[in-house]
Give the backbone structure.
Amino acid sequence: MKYVVITGVSRGLGRSLARAFLLSGWGVIGISRTGDGGLVEEAKGTGKSYVFVPWDLTKLETLDSLAEKVVSLLPVESEEVVFIHNAGEMQPVTEIRNLGHKEVEHNFILNTVSVIVLTAAFLRKLGKGFPFLQLVFISSRSVVSPRRLWAVYGAAKAGVDHFVCSLALEYKGKKNISAIAIHPPAMDTEMRRHYLKKRSFLFWMWDWIERYILRRKKVYDPDLVAWKLFYLIEKHSLSSGSVWRWE
Ligand SMILES: NC(=O)c1ccc[n+]([C@@H]2O[C@H](COP(=O)([O-])OP(=O)(O)OC[C@H]3O[C@@H](n4cnc5c(N)ncnc54)[C@H](OP(=O)(O)O)[C@@H]3O)[C@@H](O)[C@H]2O)c1
């Protein structure tokens, strides 16, 4: 059986990805703080395998134990393992002069540091005898198209893209491991709704006009994005070290 580990499964893109893999017969190990996105219930009685591991990824000192737990849940006979680092947060969205160290630190810890620390711990715990392993990192287009007020989020995700390149370089020539960064499109998720709530009413109105009247801004259903990513990952269509962008 093939297995996927996904962080941030309680809602949004992570939940949609977990559902796509689950419905396609993969074993799923989902990680987030608040809930399993209703997937444990959905998997019940279907013969499908979904294990939810509640964990706060910002507790860096615990990530070794998380990696150990995840590896213990992967059967030794797994044909393939995919690890999708999806959990993320956009805040603080503000002018640079308003930034305080706590919120900057929190953003980098979740979006960048936890991703690096957990990847390192997972590779260590998995050892050398792993099956085919795809490490997938959900990043953001804001790395290449900077947006006003998104300095911290964009910088943290840029760190992830760089890490993916370094990872791919380190494992170059190894046929059983690949590392890929993904820049999804704008999606209708809690992250986007929370972002819009933090902006002015005028900004929100303009966003709405661009989306529904002028039809020049596209915001996608996370289920649609998840299925597209599922097929790309399942077919091994993405080469190690590459950044895949939704165009
Ligand atoms: N939405 C967009 O338009 C968009 C565009 C480009 C890229 N992205 C990227 O896509 C990914 C998913 O975004 P989304 O829109 O689906 O966001 P979302 O709806 O806000 O979901 C974020 C997920 O991350 C989890 N999470 C947050 N903090 C966590 C922590 N400390 N420990 C464990 N899990 C944590 C949340 O679960 P809990 O709260 O239960 O822990 C939740 O399941 C992110 O990496 C984001 O940067 C999003």
About this structure: Residues 7-14, 32-35, 56-58, 86-89, 110, 138, 140, 184, 186-187, 189-192 surround NAP (CB under 6 Å). The chain has two domains: 2-185+221-241, 188-219. Residues 58 and 109 are 6 Å apart (CA to CA). The first helix runs from residue 12 to 23.
